[in-house]
Every structure is written in structure tokens, then in C-alpha cells.
Amino acid sequence: MKLFNSFLNLISRPERRNQNFEELLEAGNISKIINSMSSCDEWADEAIREYNPALHAIMNRRDKLVKDKDGRVQRVEKRWKLPIPYQSYINEIALVFMYGRPVKWLQQSDDTTQAFRAFTNLIKSTRFDSKIRQCKRLAGSETQSAMLFRVFRNGEGKPDCQIRVLARSKGDDIRVSWDQYDNINHIGWGYYLVEGNKNVYHFDIFTPHTIYRCKKTPLGWDVQPEENLVGKIPVILFQQEKEWHGVEAMIEREEFVGSRTADTNDYFADPTLVLAADVIRNMPDKKEEAKVLIASGVDDIKKAAGLVTWDSEPVSKENEIRWLQNHILSKTFTPNIDFDNMKSLSNVSGKALKQMMVLADIKAQKRKETHDELLDRIGSLCKAIIGNVLDVSLKAECERLVIGHEFQEPFGDDITEAINNIVKLYSDGLMSRETAIELNPYITDPTQELNRINVVGPSNFPQEEALS
């Protein structure tokens, strides 16, 4: 009996959560709802500090006070603070290997051409390719971002859609309520608006059927529910660990070693003259370029007179810096891309270049495990927006539409080799004309291209021309 009751408690837990959510909404207790939702604010704040070079720990290094023998401050010696922006470099490389080239959307159903054309138009009009790059960059640098699809009526009174990117660094509070199966119950978005002379805090709660517009007032929360015409939560959530996760201490160490080395260079890089004390009258300060070491007598002059130079930094320090650099990049799956490495790659094929960048490709493949699901959700959400809001006449066709996607290689494929393979397979009878047209990388609309070929006629349209 106890086991049966435990089972009933398990299956009814989501319902009780929803019931508590509804009860809190009716009571206007939005603050409790906000506190019950999960947040990545702490991780995001830490990542934002590390992403900004001006906030690195090395910037807290203090200048040195030089005192005389009586303890009076003679001068302040500058100590170098050299933050290294590894974080942005690592993040940008990861972004390029994910969305350096736009996602390729595929129609995988029959008799849904109009719905798919409406989908591609929505992707273009909302500047989706730009927005998803922003989301990926922010997620990599802050651990979380979101893509909000907003439907509204434009100036002509027609239904329209736009995308807004949400992130902690942009002043947005992103909160999520999950169930035990990692499904999203509802998503909250907090933000400030200027109303009159005050900044007023707003918090919108998105559920599949209702959007609750909440505004904080001196007397409590003002809640205005509105119907969610889309029928789905219009938010796509991007979450991950920061792209430089695991190498924070190594980055901090290299910054410290580099800054200390810069101080040492200032002190020892210029030659130092050795003279006897009774010869020197107006000695330059040792911080100036012409530094002097004083010998005690003439015998010392004969032994040590001349210029003392610093040949190079210690080998152990050089080895440590090289070790840090190699491990920072390799442990974040980031290739070392600089001018010296790239100047000899002008004639390298795309396949060879991919092999050279295998570390970044490994990382991208790992990220695709999550982003495949996100792109599936984006396709489903866009179909709902089109069928329920933008063009209701396409609702049935949108429900039949099956959308696929492919990630494209950041440096492009070898198109010549691909076309030669397509021509050979078609000529040998191992591939249909329709498939050959679909695989041709130069053709963006296979259906339209096939219609053009049929109008011209097969007899007047050579195979090679049809494929190129």
C-alpha cells in the first residue's frame, strides 16, 4: 500500500505544482512564483566577470611604493596588469564552428511547399541567423540566454513576428520552472521599463496557453493575463557551461606570470653601467633608462666595469608560459589560430582544414547534441506561429510539414568534388534526377529548379548543365 501511495504521489506531483502555480497567480503572489523558479544568475555573473578583461583578478594588482631608509614614500612604481582575453577568443572559435554558416533547413514532407516557403520567409524576416549567433555567443559567455518570439500587429495592422535575444548582461532576468523529466512548465522574463520618472519592474510568465503580464507596484503585483495565440511557449532557452570551463586557474596564472615578466623587463631590459662610487656625482634614478651600479673602489672597477645586460628570461618561465598556453587551448578544444599558422594554408582544401581544426570540430559535435533539440523546437514553434497567427489558412499544411536541419561546415565543403560525384552517380544510373538536383549545392530551391528543367525539356537540357 505504501508503494502504491508513493506511485500516486509521483504521478500527481506535476499537477500539484501547476495547482500551486495557479493558486499563487490568483493570490497575486508573483514574488513567491519568481523565487520558486530556477535561475542561473550566480553562474552568469561569475562568467560575465571572467569574460570582461577589465574585471580579471590581475587588475587588482597594486602598484609598488618605493620608500627611503626613513620610510618616506619616494615614488610609486607602476606594476603591469596584463589581462589576456582568452575567454572571448575561445568563445568566438566555438561559435564559428557551430553557426559560422547558417543552418540549412530541409523540407522532409510532401505537398507542404507553401508552408515551407512561409517558414523560410519567417526565418529571413526575423533575421534568425543573426539572432541564433547572438544567443550562442551569449550562452557561451554567460551560461544562459534565450530567444523570445514576439507576435504582434505591425503598422499595417497585419500579424507579424520578431525575435528578441534575452541575456543577463542585457538586463534580463530569465527564470524557468521544470518538471522531474526536464520538461519546461513555464518560463519567466523580468525586465525594467521607464514609466514616467521611475523604473518599473515587469515580469512576464509564458505558458503554452496564457501569458501573464505582471508589473510590480507599491501596493503589490498587477497581473494581466492574455491569451497565448501561438499555443506554445514562445521562448527557446540556451543553457551550457561557459566555453572556457576548467581552465580558469591556468588563465589567471598566465596573466600573473606575464605581468611579472613585464615588470622584470622594465627593470633589467636596458643595459646597466658599473662605475666606482667616487666617480659618480649626479646618478640617474634606477628606474630611468640609464641605470648605474656603484662599485666600492678602483679594484672593483677593474673587475666589474662595463655594461651588465640581461640576455633572456629564465628558461623555466618560458616553458611554463608555453605549457599554460598549450593546455588552455587544448583543454577547451580550441585550435591555435594565428598569422604564422595560417599564412601557409592558402591552398589547403576544406577537408584538410577540417582535420587541422579537429579540436574545435569535436567540441562542436558535443554541442550539437543539445542544439539539435533546440533547432527541432524552433522548427515546431515557427510552424505554430505561422499556422495559428501569421497565416491561418496554412494551419493544416503546417501541421503536416516536417522540417529537418543540417549544420553546415564553417569553411564550406569542396563543391567541385561534390558536383563531380553527383554527375558520376547520375550518369551511372545510381541516382535520380530529383535527388541530384536536391544535392546540388548551387541550387537553393530544388522544386523550382525541377519545374524549370521540365519546361525546357530533357532533350534540350544536358545533364551536366542541369546539375551545375
Question: Explain this structure to me?
Answer:
- The chain has 468 residues and is an alpha+beta fold.
- Among the domains are: 1-36 and 144-239, no CATH class; 270-309, no CATH class; 415-468, no CATH class.
- 46% of the residues lie in helices and 21% in strands.
- The chain has helices at 2-27, 30-36, 41-51, 86-99, 113-125, 128-142, 248-268, 298-304, 315-331, 339-342, 350-356, 358-390, 395-400, 415-427, 433-439, 446-456, 463-467; strands at 38-39, 64-67, 73-77, 104-107, 144-153, 159-166, 173-178, 184-195, 198-206, 210-217, 220-227, 235-239, 272-276, 291-295, 306-308, 403-406.
- A 6-stranded antiparallel β-sheet has the order 1-7-8-9-10-11, covered by helices on one side. Strands 6-5-12 form a 3-stranded antiparallel β-sheet, covered by helices on one side.
- 21% of the residues are buried.
- Mean pLDDT is 83; it is low at 1-16 and 459-468.
Descriptive tags:
468 residues; alpha+beta; six-stranded antiparallel β-sheet; three-stranded antiparallel β-sheet; 17 helices; 46% helix; disordered C terminus
Structural class: alpha+beta
Sheet with most strands: 6 strands, antiparallel
Number of strands: 16
Shape estimate = flat
Helix content: 40-55%
Widest sheet: strand order?
Answer: 1-7-8-9-10-11
Poorly predicted regions are 1-16, 459-468
End-to-end gap: 71 Å
Proportion of beta-strand residues: 15-25%
Specify Rg, calculated over alpha carbons: 32 Å
Average predicted local confidence, pLDDT: 83
SS summary, helix count: 17
